[in-house]
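User: Show me sequence and structure for the first protein, then do the same for the second.

Assistant: Starting with the first protein.
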Amino acid sequence: MKEGYRFLGEYIRQVDIRNKEGKKENLLGVSVQKQFIQSIANTVGTDFTKYKVVKKGQFTYIPDTSRRGDKIAIALLEDYEEGLVSNVYTVFEVIDTEKLLPEYLMLWFSRPEFDRYARFKSHGSVREVMDWEEMCKVELPVPDIEKQRKIVKAYKTITDRIALKQKINDNLATQALTLFSDFVSHLSKKLEQRKLGDVIASANTGGDAIQKVPIVDYDTGIKCARVGDITNAREYASWAFCNASKSVYDNYKLQAGDILVTRTATLGITQYIAKDISAVYNNGLIRLKVNDTNALPLYIYWAMKTSDFLNYINQMNSATSVRPNMKIDYLLNYQLSIPSIEEQTQFTNTVEPLMNAISLNNDEILKLSEFQAIILTTLSSR
């Protein structure tokens, strides 16, 4: 054992309180993002008395690590006084919070190294699990309680700042969308509806995620946009690197004015590419290039952020019970109002300052996220 490290088992104990009253409220799951989420499990005919009660300040983890992308689902309950979790989950708590802060322990669990450790220590013939015995064998540095509080406070300060910037960006995006709606409402009576395909020069799905643009964990100089990046509005700097040949890169490289649209998972989520970047996109996305002789990319982008567009896309979701893949033809059949280039320019001149502010906030969020990662990385050296 490294100097200054202790076995986690000295500080934690299992908790197994069953839901004897049969409550049905606040049924929770645990994600690999290390958060509690509202459960979407089918509970018809479920015996809720078998569920475990987890209380604020307690942890829950899913021992099975084999089907979660090499990550372990574990979380600290902070947002509710109590919740219910499946009886196959493990609930535990810190024995003495004056010796080990639950929030400090959660930071340790949040490290990518802990995910790798949990997978390495998982075992089983049918499914691989990290059982309670292995959890107790986890080694971690336990500095004095005041140092733990300082570390937790520093991390929380950054987290709160990120949340503030994200809220500001949400407000700016709402303002931009309001500007678009107001702009179109003054033109709608004199404009005919046209298909999106009428103003698109090209529309293509991206490179095969396994064969053409596989993700790697080292710097190749080329990043790859994936569905999760677009769905979560991640900026270019936080995308993963990929391997791509010169011919693949030339075919799928992203340039200023491109619009990316998700065609799998959550359909119709868009992202605007403001400048040329060293990146490609995979086959979970559609890349639109606007024909700039009769439309401006930024105008089209905001037209695809409206509730009208999303309602059109959702018609595909409701038309099938299986997970849909949006076809390019369906996307291009969407109808919208296309004013003159001069009128579109008026709108884009108005909205660009808002988008620039969003971009600056995203730059700060990325730097703050890097600081968070540094804090997590340095935990092991304390």
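Switching to the second protein now.
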Amino acid sequence: MPEPKDRVVVASDVNPRDGIGVEIYRDDELVVEIFRDDTERTRTVTVFKESISLELMQECIETFKKEIPWDFIEYDE
């Protein structure tokens, strides 16, 4: 069986949420998005498959930590 092909897309979003995240695709299917929302000051994980391996989730988190700055952007009120 061939190795799965992973692809990472770094994407920012400004409406309705404001922040940046990574989308992880496996064999061209979106499986996980991890997003840092600077307005809400949250980091969230969305899984688009019914189940994924713990190893894949750990890889996704490591990719997020490597690609996306951890600190939130501060906005002046």
